[in-house]
Amino acid sequence: MSARNGSWRESLRCQIENLQHTADNLDGSEVDRAVEMVRRCTGLLIFSGVGQNLVLADKVASTFSSLSLRAVSADPVAALHGGMGLFRPEDLLILISKSGESPELLRFLDACRQVGHSNTLAIHSAPGSTLATSCRGGVHVPMVSEADHLDLAPTASSICFLGLLQSLAAELASAAGLSEAAFRRTHPGGTIGLGPVRVR
């Protein structure tokens, strides 16, 4: 499972195979505990990460919000420079990191603990990492390799993190009984807000 020859077909196949590997090897008990942490959250779901994982956090928060699950994303570096006032003890902070050792994210986590915010969930690919062992809960996202020729760029890992987190959102929205009518009410723009397209 690699994309060493650099072709787009091999890269795409590598991403698909990594996603299948993740689905086949996730620890179900870890995922169940994560779902329960999200379900019991009475505040905001706050997704965060560094670099491309911050972009991923934005997308995941958007998916959760789209399904009427109150979520935002937060830049950990910006938070350390005046943004810590956003966070409340009832919020759930969901931190995304492949290595679990990103210095900016760990400093952010430490700052959150200092202001009494301990409701934290790590989404990572490194069991035993500082992030994994420092958060209240965590899900290890197993993967084999990235999908670029160097095996370095966050390609397959992003797909695996995104797939897992959006799947959690889908399960939670279904369990909460989100109806099609309610979904359409929160999407008044575009074709979704217009209702079903009738084919004559």
What does this structure look like?
Helix 3 (52-66) runs parallel beside helix 7 and helix 4 runs parallel beside helix 5 (103-114). This protein is α/β, with parallel strands linked by helices and 200 residues long. The model has no long low-confidence stretch (mean pLDDT 94). The chain has nine helices and five strands; from the N terminus they run H-H-E-H-E-H-E-H-E-H-E-H-H-H. The chain is globular and about 45 Å long. The protein has a five-stranded parallel sheet with strand order 2-1-3-4-5. The protein has helices at residues 8-25, 28-40, 52-66, 76-83, 103-114, 130-134, 156-175, 180-185, 190-194; strands spanning 45-49, 71-74, 92-97, 120-124, 137-140. 35% of the residues are buried. Strand 4 (120-124), helix 6 and strand 5 (137-140) form a beta-alpha-beta unit.
Percentage of residues in helical conformation? 40-55%
Q: What low-confidence regions span 5 or more consecutive residues with pLDDT below 50?
A: none
Mean pLDDT comes to: 94
Number of beta-strand segments: 5
How many helices? The count is 9
SSE run:
HHEHEHEHEHEHHH
Features:
200 residues, alpha/beta, globular, five-stranded parallel β-sheet
